[in-house]
């Protein structure tokens, strides 16, 4: 009887371990299938993925910004530069008074977070219009980033970013361009000032969402800052 119980529990443990080991492979298979849809379907493939997103009551990003983010994500994923199947998309073509940051989980096809986000003080007032990779420019930088490690700085819990595009955002770490919370990123600030507050170049977010956002996107996920810029498209090595 004892032997039978031992064998039963050993068998159950094996099944649980096998199921757990299978989950990451299933998730990666789903990503590969989506990448194939994108390659084979072109614009229609992207629209298919876009149309199936579970919004959880949030509004969708613009298709054009989602398209660029998705294409770049797959390239970075194939190169092993990002490991999580998550995209953080920031659309700086939108008013800073609107929620223009999305965290999208490609495993579940769902929008996890939709939030306000600040741009640099020299990038523009309500609308972003000027971008830079230079130190002390106090401007935002466009393009693709990979998220790094968490640290505690003057803004509390913060997340380092590494820019992946030479000449466009590769000075991000040296410039201390990070994700952090700020009290000037809030509906109250907008109400009192007619626009969102601005950072020194960081994609600052509301304090209320900082912990959840950083916890979700830390450790090598893809972050993309979009703007319909011809000069960026011509210079980018990713899109």
From TrEMBL:
UniProt cross-references to InterPro entries, sorted A to Z: YkuD_2
Transmembrane segments: none
Keyword tags: Signal
Any Pfam family hit: YkuD_2
Signal peptide boundaries: 1-21
Protein name: L,D-transpeptidase catalytic domain
């Amino acid at each position: 009887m004892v032997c039978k119980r031992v064998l039963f529990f050993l068998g159950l443990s094996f099944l649980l371990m096998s199921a757990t080991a299978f989950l990451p492979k299933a998730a990666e298979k789903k990503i590969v299938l989506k990448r194939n849809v994108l390659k084979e379907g072109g614009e229609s493939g992207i629209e298919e993925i876009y149309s199936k997103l579970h919004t959880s009551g949030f509004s969708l990003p613009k298709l054009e910004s989602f398209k660029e983010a998705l294409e770049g994500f797959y390239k970075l994923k194939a190169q092993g530069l990002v490991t999580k199947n998550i995209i953080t998309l920031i659309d700086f073509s939108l008013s800073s008074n609107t929620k223009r940051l999305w965290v999208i989980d490609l495993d579940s096809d769902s929008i996890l977070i939709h939030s306000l986000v600040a741009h640099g003080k020299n990038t523009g007032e309500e609308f972003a219009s000027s971008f830079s990779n230079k130190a002390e420019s106090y401007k935002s930088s466009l393009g693709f980033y990979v998220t790094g490690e968490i640290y505690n700085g003057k803004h509390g819990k913060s997340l380092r970013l590494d820019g992946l595009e030479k000449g466009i955002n590769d000075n991000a770490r040296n410039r201390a361009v990070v994700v952090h919370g700020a009290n000037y990123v809030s509906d109250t600030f907008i109400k009192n000032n007619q626009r969102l507050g601005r950072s020194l170049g960081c994609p600052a977010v509301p304090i209320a969402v900082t912990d959840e956002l950083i916890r979700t996107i830390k450790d090598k996920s893809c972050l993309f800052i979009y703007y319909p810029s011809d000069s960026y498209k011509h210079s980018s090595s990713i899109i």
